[in-house]
Amino acid sequence: MALHLRLANEAWEAYYRTQATLAREFADADIWEGLHSTEYAVLYALSFEATGLRITELGDDVLLTQPGMSRLIVRLEDRGFVERTEDHADGRVHRIRLTEAGLGIQRRVGAHIARRVAKAMTRALDASQLMTLRDLSLALLVAAPGQAAFVQQRAIVRKRS
């Protein structure tokens, strides 16, 4: 039992520190065209949803509170990257969707990010190891409880489709 406890915690620490180090590497890269990573995360989430998403759905996807997401949406609207549209299913709320400018910057920055991620991930891992890492990460996500895990699982399925 003690070995299992220790090994689980060592694995978590390695996973966490690796993710944090790579996230910092990506954040420091000159690839963002003036976007913050959370702004890009919203544009990325919207790029899979032609009819847009509600603010609460976006917040769940990128792990921001509703007030934080509302402020971020205002900034993205001011820059012309997103727009609010009516939600035909519920007239009390709006859906947020990408504008042409938003789609353009999402695609440009996304291409930079994809290349940077591939470079970072393949400098130490081969294809077989990458598949193993992906599968292990998905197994942890699928086993996680709660709404946040469900939203992240749904996002992965949506993005694979």
Helices and strands, with pairings:
Elements: H1 2-28, H2 37-46, E1 53-54, H3 55-62, H4 66-78, E2 82-86, E3 94-98, H5 100-122, H6 127-143, H7 147-160
Antiparallel strand pairs: 1-3, 2-3
Helix pairs in contact: 3-4, 6-7
Q: What this model shows, in words?
A:
The structure is a single chain. The chain has 161 residues and is mainly α. The protein contains seven helices and three strands; from the N terminus they run H-H-E-H-H-E-E-H-H-H. A three-stranded antiparallel beta sheet has the order 1-3-2.
How is the quaternary structure best described?
A: single chain
Q: What would the average pLDDT be, to the nearest integer?
A: 91
Number of helices: 7
In terms of DSSP E residues, the strand content is 5-15%
> Which bin fits the share of residues in helices?
55-70%
Could you tell me the number of beta strands?
A: 3
Question: What is the approximate shape?
Answer: globular
Secondary structure class reads mainly alpha
* SSE series: HHEHHEEHHH
Can you give me a brief rundown of this structure?
The chain is mainly alpha-helical. The chain is 70% helix and 7% strand.
Keywords summarizing the entry:
161 residues, mainly alpha
